[in-house]
Amino acid sequence: MIISEYIAQELQRRGVTHVFELTGGMITFLIDALREQSSITVVSMHHEQAAGFAAEGMARMTGVPGVAMATSGPGATNLLTAMGSCYFDSTPAVFITGQVNRSEQKGDRAIRQLGFQETDIVSMARPITKSAILIQSPEEVPQRIEEAFRLATSGRPGPVLLDIPMDVQRAQFVEASSPTHVNIDVLPTADYKAFWLRCTHAIKNSKRPLILAGGGIRSSRSVEAFRKFVTALGVPVVNSLMGVDVLPFNDPLRVGLIGSYGNRWANHTLSECDVLLVLGSRLDVRQTGSDTEQFRGNRAIFHVDCEAGEMNNRVKGCETLQSELGTFFKHINVENINACHAWRTHINQMRLQSPDIAELSQVEGINPNILMHQISKHAGGAAAFVADVGQHQQWACQSIEIYKEQRFLTSGGMGAMGFALPTAIGCALASTVPVILIAGDGGFQLNIQELQTVARMKLPLKMIVVNNGCHGMVRQFQEAYFKGRYHSTLWGYSAPSFERVARAYNIEAAAVGKPTEVEEALAKCFHAKDQPFLLEVFVHTMANAYPKLAFGRPISQMEPQVKSIEMEGT
């Protein structure tokens, strides 16, 4: 057995069912071994970035580290965006790159490159991985595989890179002792009882308690424990962009999305609360606005996170507990300590006064928020919604209806356009029911080549391309700060007919531009549940993502009614 065959068998033993790759010379031994020595499905993508995103989608759905491979040089560097996406959004993944033979590596020589396509990917990847390792000998492979999978899933999950020279891949594997068990990311002992006593005391004596649910609830695989906790406690819940799916849409305690493009009533709820319990959310600028002192106010804030550096970082004076959320829920006793009847009634009144579908009530043509509700009603059996990055992402987060077993995936920290199509491929391969993709015309073009993967594998993807004929998020920014000079967003930008492009890939497709056409088109899109379908939906070019936090102002003050008083930094 050679090292490549050992790696293939080890990946299978660790629960990996799919490996995503774009072939290249330095990974040919690995690909051959995967196909010949394991039952793992090797999914050949059409760009390495897409392979990385597909691995991310698989990992987010299953909890097993996603695996993507690429050859040395440009193949390896094309994986970097997906590595960063996994790192910032806490997704477990193992990236494997082929490297040139050890004899062809420049080492300490004062040259740029020795072997063809030799590239120091490890140094490039270190800032956006939990670990990046160049394997130097066949003997260390078992230990490195062990470390990679343990590190990817421990503590705050994330990606690990293994860079393996080709001569190591084809070297003979020598049976040795089992890899050493390594304890990684051991958190300090937490005083759960004291923290929870202080938190419950504050909630009992509050009039307007609130929970902010972040992406850490999903990445810690503690959604069910969180739902039981919330039901028992009886406190309303707002969510961040990465926490859209932690509570079902019809849960009576679910309030909605907060932040830069949050639901108006949810931001008002956050502004008015007097006790805030933050679970797995890092309180970044898109959640709090730029004025952290105003956000902090006089309220008591209790913050639980597995990473010490994320607490009392931007928002100071929080009571903190460093803990994995699953462990936190196991260590506390929950009782219904605040019925919140008047508070919940007030929140519901705010929702009725400023519904999401009223934000763009004057827009010509199809209302994007209404569209999201319409998509939801046709998507009852879908496993997941996957949103790309842009205005459509915010409309989806504001209005999509996620029910108990469904997932919502998007690119948060990296904010990578082109994320949705390949990630949805990974989701579809992890599921047996349809996956819904929501993308904008700009982002969809970044990885449009993966329509061939969808067609070849006959994946049940329902692809909704919201076409506003521009890079809408940046165009909206230019409208606010550049007096409507739309360089590179509207001026100098174009897109093809996505309906015709899909048909070129032998994928059924349709296009709509009138509100009266949407229901019939969606019915056609979802009719054949086991087949891919692309629906192109035209919305007005000047439709903005509203409400939008007015930067420099309190989080309750949002555009278009109020204007920003300082430049956005993000």
CATH superfamily of the largest domain: Thiamin diphosphate (ThDP)-binding fold, Pyr/PP domains
In the CATH classification, which architecture of the largest domain applies?
3-Layer(aba) Sandwich
Shape: globular
Overall structural domain count: 3
Seen as an oligomer or otherwise, the chain set is: single chain
Percent of residues in beta strands: 15-25%
Helix content: 25-40%
CATH topology of the largest domain: Rossmann fold
Which class do the helix and strand fractions yield? alpha/beta
Main sheet characteristics: 6 strands, parallel
Number of helices: 24
Strand order of the largest sheet: 2-1-3-4-6-5
What is the strand tally? Answer: 20
- Runs in which pLDDT lies below 50 for 5 or more consecutive residues are none
Throw out a few tags for this protein.
Rossmann fold, alpha/beta, six-stranded parallel sheet, 16% strand, 3 domains
Any overview of this molecule?
This protein is α/β, with parallel strands linked by helices and 570 residues long. The chain has three domains: 3-169, Rossmann fold, CATH 3.40.50; 192-353, 3-Layer(aba) Sandwich (Rossmann fold); 364-546, 3-Layer(aba) Sandwich (Rossmann fold), CATH 3.40.50.970. The protein is built from 24 helices and 20 strands. β1, α2 and β2 form a beta-alpha-beta unit. α1 packs across α2 and α17 runs parallel beside α24 (518-527).
